[in-house]
């Protein structure tokens, strides 16, 4: 009889243990499902499920509420990492910068998808009055526009601002759209682009964009595209500030001249020699900051103007640079944190 009682207790224990194992397995499965749906941290996923009595739909709503509150709290934190995203048609190109706090989030698929969607959104903006000049796209230009993310983990139609907030909630970091530009092609020209440190098409950390114009719009396209791509790469590597010498502001030129003169006077040479030294160093300054005067990165025996002259001869028509743009993730962000939408890109 005692043996029967002990056996009965063992059976009850095994039954309860099996029931517990089954329940634990189901809970682990729910955690996995919700984690896949939201990409939220596991501890937050589990906490939301426990608070929602393991109802996955209710837990998902709870996660979104918590995440948005957390995103709001983190919105003042400096976000200097992120990606540039580029979208292009034959008529124009759009470039945006989406920031986050860490490189880890910048590698996340959802963050990258959002960046590409925002670039396409900027490309859709109409600014017909801008002709061939680049125009700035601030966050306020896009925040209230409607966006369809079409991503397995975050889809549906929403506003740009809500989409950014939701991604920030999922990532657990401050995520923000910092700035953007749209550069239209001229009537007889095209746009060349280059993205440096590009994890996938349309994304990168440094971008060079170049608008070329040719007198004969039907000339050799392949040659124009080849040299255009090389010049866009040059923009990234050489960091030009101005398109031509004539576009260097007079105050910047005067300031540079005074610095060079002060340096030359310390040599103790005659005034005539000092003037020659200043002019020589001023030419070097132009070679450093003026696009047309810079040594071409692919062949430093010639400058950019010589490259364009050779291209014009090759295609049998005059080719010129109308505009260029260089942008880098996080540039100037520490100095301009109080007004992040201000441009720090180098636009000719």
From TrEMBL:
An annotated GO BP: mitochondrial translational elongation
GO cellular component, one term: mitochondrion
Subcellular localization, as worded in the UniProt entry: Mitochondrion
Residue stretches spanning the membrane: none
Residue ranges that the Swiss-Prot or TrEMBL entry lists as coiled coil: none
Main location per the UniProt record: mitochondrion
A family per Pfam: EF_TS
SUPFAM superfamilies named among the record's database cross-references: Elongation factor Ts (EF-Ts), dimerisation domain, UBA-like
InterPro entries from the UniProt entry: EF-Ts_dimer_sf, Transl_elong_EFTs/EF1B, Transl_elong_EFTs/EF1B_dimer, Transl_elong_Ts_CS, UBA-like_sf
Domain Translation elongation factor EFTs/EF1B dimerisation intervals: 94-331
CDD domains: UBA_EF-Ts
PROSITE patterns, sorted: EF_TS_2
A single GO molecular function term of this UniProt record: translation elongation factor activity
Alphabetical keyword list: Elongation factor, Mitochondrion, Protein biosynthesis, Transit peptide
Superkingdom of this protein's organism: Eukaryota
NCBIfam families: tsf
Chain's role: Associates with the EF-Tu.GDP complex and induces the exchange of GDP to GTP. It remains bound to the aminoacyl-tRNA.EF-Tu.GTP complex up to the GTP hydrolysis stage on the ribosome.
Annotated family: Belongs to the EF-Ts family.
Name this polypeptide is given: Elongation factor Ts, mitochondrial
């Amino acid at each position: 009889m005692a043996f029967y009682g002990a056996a009965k207790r063992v059976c009850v224990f095994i039954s309860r243990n099996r029931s517990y194992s089954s329940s634990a397995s189901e809970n682990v499965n729910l955690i996995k499902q919700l984690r896949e749906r939201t990409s939220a941290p596991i501890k937050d996923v589990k906490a939301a499920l426990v608070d929602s009595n393991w109802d996955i739909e209710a837990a998902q709503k709870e996660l979104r509420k918590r995440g948005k509150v957390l995103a709001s709290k983190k919105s003042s934190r400096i976000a200097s990492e992120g990606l540039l995203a580029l979208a292009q048609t034959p008529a124009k190109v759009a470039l945006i910068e989406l920031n986050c706090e860490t490189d880890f989030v910048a590698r996340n698929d959802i963050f990258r998808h959002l960046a590409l969607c925002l670039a396409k959104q900027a490309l859709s903006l109409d600014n017909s009055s801008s002709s061939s000049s680049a125009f700035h796209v601030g966050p306020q230009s896009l925040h209230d526009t409607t966006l369809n993310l079409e991503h397995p983990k975050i889809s549906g139609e929403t506003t740009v601002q809500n989409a950014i907030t939701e991604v920030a909630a999922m990532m657990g970091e401050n995520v923000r759209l910092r700035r953007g530009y749209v550069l239209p092609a001229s009537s007889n020209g095209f746009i060349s682009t280059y993205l440096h440190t590009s994890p996938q098409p349309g994304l990168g950390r440094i971008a060079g964009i170049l608008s070329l114009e040719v007198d004969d719009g039907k000339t050799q396209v392949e040659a124009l595209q080849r040299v255009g791509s090389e010049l866009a790469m040059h923009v990234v590597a050489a960091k030009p500030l101005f398109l031509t010498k004539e576009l260097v502001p007079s105050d910047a030129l005067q300031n540079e001249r005074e610095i060079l003169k002060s340096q030359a006077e310390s040599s103790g040479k005659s005034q005539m020699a000092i003037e020659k030294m200043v002019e020589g160093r001023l030419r070097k300054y132009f070679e450093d900051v003026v696009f047309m005067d810079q040594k071409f990165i692919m062949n430093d025996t010639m400058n950019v103007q010589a490259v364009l002259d050779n291209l014009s001869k090759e295609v049998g028509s005059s080719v010129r640079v109308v505009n260029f743009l260089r942008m880098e993730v996080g540039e100037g962000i520490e100095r301009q944190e109080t007004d992040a939408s201000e441009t720090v890109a180098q636009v000719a």
